[in-house]
């Protein structure tokens, strides 16, 4: 779906287009009128001939340049006549409705609702508006009507004055109120007006006390309200540019226009539901609500609202008052937390943020969008950047406006002269204002967060120390782990000294933990891993510390590969084999090996006689074991499809991942990532064998064929001519013609 973010005014305005056109015409004039040479001025016929040739070449060059300029002119004209977003979706609706006849527009109507929308292509295929299913309805496009007995909407609507047009477009209530307010003569008479006419439903939706106040004083209140819906000039949808402001006919108060990329146009946040209904003395745009005048900026609106007292205090402390008082090109959307929203936050957390200027500024900026977004402009969840730099997903669910998928907007569209305010009943705290513990508690690592607290690490995770936490996903833990001294020590090694970014990590880097260990970084084509655990989500950057979400509980290396094998009873036969082959020193020395270690079950799988022969032949045994050892560190997170790892034996091991299980030369790994200081051990229950040699295509097909001679082609032709199809070709008319030409 197209983004609902605001449409910036087009860079190429009408005046810019005019300038470009003028320049291009000037160049054309100079090119076509310049460089003229009088051949008669030459002394002799030879000289005249030469000059004529030069002139001909020059004219050809001028024509080529003229063609290029004409193409440029076409491009400029295309840009200048570019459609507005509304016209684009209207055209799409026309295309979708043409099967029903001429001038029929297809619209999406929200089920169990009267709301209808012209749509773009993606909305059409999704068939949803604000997460609600829609049905297709067909109506006459703006400016057309049906004729009994004919298909579609072949007739143009009769062009009448604004008063009568209100009746034609179904704004009967507005027409009635204009007559009560003695405006009929005005909108029937001469002039050129734009009338943003509230629909019948819009008047019915007004609170009873407001409607009573209007109709009880028709000569002042109702008259003023209707005049505020009028502009003393004709404004089509093309001229209703995003961010434009027009003076209304009520005490020169202004109306605020927004024209969004999804084709929705609003005036004072009321959606135009039937735009461009032309009249003899102007134009009517039917809107979905009665609009009211606004003369206050956002700061003033916040200052006079009792329910925003806490927000007002916070903004004053952060120095935001001046920014929200400024009027000009900047238009803001503020999701204003009410006093209730602030009251839901733990007192200690709120006190910490309000007392930290940096966190407070980030908190407030996270509630402000750079552009104005009225509620009616939102038809689907759309990510929008805040002043803080993070993204909020602004969406809708039926009539409710949502933030990050939650229906927390309690009041919509409080319009100011420099933006709009939506009240929310829940405070939005960005990651940049959170402690490390708060980052963990608000993510998919709540099990780890609880364990860190149980391990007595709360003070580290809530303080101002620069740290990075490696937080395993909830599914990385089996059941509910019980806190033990070993687990406490392990969790301490999940916290790194210094605040890091995963983007700055590099292969072979060592990271120091609070427990004093050094953890290694491994960078693979498909993953970034720290020891056996790989990063599973984007970094979360808090106020002082960062959090890396990882896929496994990190297990630091506690010894060499030989130490790991000796400590595991499954490898008792392997340990003996290593000693027999004289490879103990290799697996104890410093290095980086990947050992696919056969368990006792793997050895027992071999025929006894074959096993005995192998164990008696140290050279052969060494060769077999070296095939199980890869040169370099490869944890399971670095294995993807078709990874090749050179073995110490010389052949390359073929690795891939199938059904979340690593395989090496088609042998599954039964337990991965037993970390060692000089490598990693992966347990296998079968002896790894060399794969059959792959024969490339050239070897399989024989030596490459040399270029054949013409004679050989003739032989092939003769053999091909025995084919029935070739005989038919020979008898064809074109084939007979070829023979004659030969």
Describe this structure in words.
- This is Transforming growth factor-beta-induced protein ig-h3.
- One of its GO terms (molecular function) is cell adhesion molecule binding.
- The chain crosses the membrane at residues 12-32, 66-86.
- Residues 101-155 form the EMI domain.
- The chain has 30 helices and 35 strands.
- The longest helix has 36 residues, at 45-80.
- Mean pLDDT is 85; it is low at 1-17, 34-43, 74-81, 695-722 and 733-742.
- The chain has a seven-stranded mixed sheet with strand order 8-7-13-12-11-10-9. It has a seven-stranded mixed sheet with strand order 30-29-35-34-33-32-31. Strands 2-1-4-3 form a four-stranded antiparallel sheet.
- It is of the alpha+beta class.
- It is 36% helix and 23% strand.
Largest sheet: 7 strands, mixed
Whole-number mean pLDDT: 85
Q: What's the architecture of the largest domain, going by CATH?
A: Roll
Share of helical residues? 25-40%
Rg value: 39 Å
Low-confidence segments? 1-17, 34-43, 74-81, 695-722, 733-742
């Amino acid at each position: 779906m197209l983004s609902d973010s605001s449409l910036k005014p087009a860079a190429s305005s009408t005046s810019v287009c005019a300038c470009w056109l003028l320049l291009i015409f000037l160049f054309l004039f100079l090119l076509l009128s310049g460089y003229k040479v009088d051949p008669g001025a030459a002394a002799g016929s030879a000289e005249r001939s030469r000059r004529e040739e030069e002139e001909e070449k020059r004219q050809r060059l001028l024509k080529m340049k003229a063609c290029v300029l004409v193409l440029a002119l076409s491009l400029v004209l295309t840009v200048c006549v570019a459609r507005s977003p509304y016209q684009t979706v209207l055209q799409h609706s026309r295309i979708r409705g043409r099967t029903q006849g001429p001038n029929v527009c297809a619209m999406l109507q929200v089920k169990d609702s009267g709301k209808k929308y012209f749509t773009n292509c993606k909305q059409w295929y999704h068939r949803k508006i604000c997460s609600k299913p829609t049905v297709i309805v067909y109506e006459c496009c703006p400016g057309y009507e049906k004729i009994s007995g004919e298909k579609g909407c072949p007739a143009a609507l009769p062009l009448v004055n604004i008063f009568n047009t209100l009746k034609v477009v179904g704004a009967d209530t507005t027409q009635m109120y204009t007559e009560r307010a003695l405006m009929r003569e005005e909108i029937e008479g001469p002039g050129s007006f734009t009338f943003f006419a509230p629909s019948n439903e819009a008047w019915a939706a007004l609170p009873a006390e407001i409607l009573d106040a209007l109709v009880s004083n028709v000569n002042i209140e109702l008259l003023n309200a209707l005049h505020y819906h009028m502009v003393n000039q004709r404004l089509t949808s093309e001229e209703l540019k995003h961010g434009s402001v027009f003076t209304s006919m009520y005490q020169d108060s202004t109306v605020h226009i927004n024209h969004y990329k999804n084709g929705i146009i609003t005036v004072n946040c009321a959606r135009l539901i039937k735009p461009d209904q032309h009249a003899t003395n102007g134009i009517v745009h039917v809107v979905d609500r009665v609009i009211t005048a606004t003369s206050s900026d956002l700061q003033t609106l916040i200052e006079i609202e009792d329910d925003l007292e806490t927000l007002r205090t916070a903004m004053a402390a952060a120095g935001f008052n001046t920014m929200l008082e400024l009027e000009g090109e900047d238009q803001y959307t503020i999701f204003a937390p009410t006093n209730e929203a602030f009251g839901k936050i733990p007192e200690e957390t709120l006190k910490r943020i309000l007392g930290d200027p940096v966190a407070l500024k980030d908190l407030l900026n996270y509630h402000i969008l750079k552009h104005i977004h009225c509620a009616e402009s939102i038809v689907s969840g759309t990510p929008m950047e805040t002043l803080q730099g993070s993204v909020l997903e602004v969406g809708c669910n039926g009539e409710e406006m949502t933030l990050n998928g939650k229906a927390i907007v309690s009041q919509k569209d409080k319009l100011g002269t420099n933006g709009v305010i939506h009240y929310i009943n829940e405070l939005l705290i960005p990651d940049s204002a959170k402690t490390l513990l708060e980052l963990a508690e608000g993510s998919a690592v709540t099990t780890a967060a609880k364990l860190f607290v149980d391990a007595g690490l709360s003070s580290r995770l809530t303080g101002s120390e620069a740290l990075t936490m490696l937080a395993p996903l909830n599914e990385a833990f089996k059941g509910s782990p019980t806190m033990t001294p070993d687990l406490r020590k392990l969790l301490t090694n999940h916290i790194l000294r210094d605040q890091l970014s995963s983007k700055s990590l590099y292969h072979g880097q060592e990271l120091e933990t609070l427990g004093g260990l050094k953890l290694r970084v491994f960078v693979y084509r498909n993953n970034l891993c720290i020891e056996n655990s790989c990063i599973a989500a984007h970094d979360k950057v808090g106020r002082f510390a960062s959090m890396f979400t990882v896929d496994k509980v990190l297990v630091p290396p506690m010894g060499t590969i030989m130490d790991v094998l000796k400590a595991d009873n499954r490898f008792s036969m392997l340990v003996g084999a290593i000693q027999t082959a004289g490879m103990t020193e290799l697996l104890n020395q410093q290095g980086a090996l990947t050992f696919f270690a056969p368990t006792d079950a793997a050895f027992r799988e071999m025929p006894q006689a074959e096993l005995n022969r192998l164990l008696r032949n140290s050279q052969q045994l060494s060769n077999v074991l070296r095939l199980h050892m890869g040169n370099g560190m490869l944890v399971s997170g670095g294995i993807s499809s078709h990874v090749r790892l050179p073995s110490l034996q010389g052949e390359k091991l073929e690795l891939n991942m199938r059904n979340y299980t690593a395989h090496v030369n088609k042998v599954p790994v039964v337990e991965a990532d037993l970390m060692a200081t000089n490598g990693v051990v992966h347990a296998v229950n079968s002896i790894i064998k060399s794969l059959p040699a792959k024969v490339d295509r050239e070897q399989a097909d024989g030596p490459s064929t040399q270029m054949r001679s013409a004679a050989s082609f003739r032989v092939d032709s003769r053999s091909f001519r025995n084919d029935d199809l070739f005989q038919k070709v020979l008898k064809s008319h074109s084939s007979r013609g070829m023979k004659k030409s030969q």
